[in-house]
Amino acid sequence: MDPVNLAACDDGIRQELFLIFVAGGILTLFLVYRLFRSANSSTRHVGLQVCYLANFWITHWIAIPVYFLPWYCGENANFSLLGAREGLYGLLGFTVGAALVTYLTGSREKTFGPPPEIPRQIRHRFLYLGLVFYVLSSLAIGVNGVAAILSGGQLFLVAGVVLSVWSAYRRGDRRGALQWVLISFLFPFMTVIRAGFLGFGIVALLPIAIAALIWMPKKNFAKLAVWGLVGGYLGLSVFVTYMRDRSDLRRAVWGKQAYSNRLTQMANTFGNFEWFSPQDPHHMAAIDGRLNQNYLVGAAVVYIENTKEWAVGRTLRDAALGLIPRLLWPDKPTAGSGNLVSQYTGIEFAEGTSVGIGQIMEFYVNFGSPMVFFGLFLFGGVLAWLDRVAARALLSGSVNRFIPAYLVGLSMQQVGGSLVEVVASAAGSLAIAYAFNILSGRNAPRRRAARPVPVAG
Question: N or C: which end of the chain has fewer CB within 10 A?
Answer without folding.
Answer: N
